[in-house]
Amino acid sequence: MISHNPKKALLSVLVATVLGGVVVADAFAQARSSDRNERRGKSSAKAEVLFPEATRTEPGGKPSSKMGSKLQKLFAAYNKDDYEQTRALADEIIAADNANDYDKAVANQLASQAAYNLDDNAAAKQYLQQAVALNQLDNNGHYQALLMLAQLQLQDDQYAEGLSNIDKYFAESKSNKPEELIIKGQALYQSEKYAEAIPVLKAAIAASPEPKDNWNQLLMAAYAEAGQTGEAVKEAEALAARNPDDKKTQLNLASMYMQADDMDKAAAVMDKLRAAGLLTEEREYKQLYSIYANTDNKEQDVIAVINEGLSKGILKPDYQVYLALAQSYYYTEQVSQAIDAWKKAAPLSPNGETYLNLARVLHGEGRIPEAKQAARDALAKGVKNPADANRIINLK
Fold first, then answer.
1. What is the tens place of the pLDDT at every residue in 282-337?
2. 85-120 burial, b for 16+ CB within 10 Å, e for fewer?
């Protein structure tokens, strides 16, 4: 007879993911007022001070008299959203021998925004680096440029550079805006610095009057990756309680229960979704039968879920599906159905081990000719111990 481990191996666990790429905040839009303040020179004193606790002393730079008309043309083009012209005029000022550092800083700042709007992030980063290095903009413009540079670097997977600049931004600007903290938290997460990401994400959530659910999802994922499963479950439960009708949130909760090895709670969440007809994707049915496959005495549920998924055309008739079905039939002593499922699984197997298990079961049922053929098929696909197959083949 086939041997089996009563502690069944975990089948494919499909944990829902909550992350995408780094989202670049619209710092350029925020910077428009600062740009215009720079154009008006000292009238910018009336502008809102965005960084009142900044450690940097504003340089008090002024446009040179020789660049006055060119700067006016530059701002006129920028205010008309003429980004090609903005960039061309900015490049002229940057290259001009008689332009001072303030002129060039402002030109780089506006050129960076023009390049960004023209989908030229590489150029935008270069302009921003120059604007920051010149150190002539007021604090509003300087720190917005530094933040945007960090964001673009993070977006381009330059995590070391981006995190260095965003750390500099927080250290000097003393900003504690949640929408900025979340950028750092996400970057730390994507850099696989999960333990470091957790306090930053918690700070962002605590500082926001209405934190977004995907912030909490990111914190949940950081806890999970850091091995703090209990905290991850708490976050998942809180999210699910706030969004009882959101399928993705409920699937995430089930996944967290699975990671915590609490299969009964995971099954309860998934059963509720199944009863409501909300399981519509293959990975969802696989997640559910995986939960049952790793819960004692739930073989009948595995069978029901797989057969339902196959009948609806949601589950593909692949090797893992038929293998799970065969095992569940076998454990519930429905041997004939198990043999039928193994016969479907064996040809899809990457090797001959499934054929060999089938041969053993057929032999145990006294179906010797079928057992011998399955053993031959096992040898043809390759098995670890050919002697086991040959013993069945050589039966008298």
1. 999 999 999 999 888 999 999 999 999 999 999 999 999 999 999 999 999 999 99
2. bbbebbeebbebeebbebbbbbbbbbbbbbbbbeeb
136-185 residue pLDDT tens: 999 999 999 999 999 999 999 999 999 999 999 999 999 999 999 999 99
The alpha carbon torsion through 351, 354, 357, 361 (nearest 10 deg) reads: -140
Report pTM.
0.70
Which pair of structure tokens corresponds to residue 69? 């008309």
Domains along the chain? 12-175 (1.25.40)
CA pair distance 68, 40, nearest whole angstrom: 11
Residue (of 306, 304, 309, 336) closest to 323 by Cα position: 306
Residue 396 pLDDT: 75
Q: SS3 of 216, please?
A: helix
Per cent of the chain over pLDDT 70 is: 88
Residue with tokens 């710092």: 27
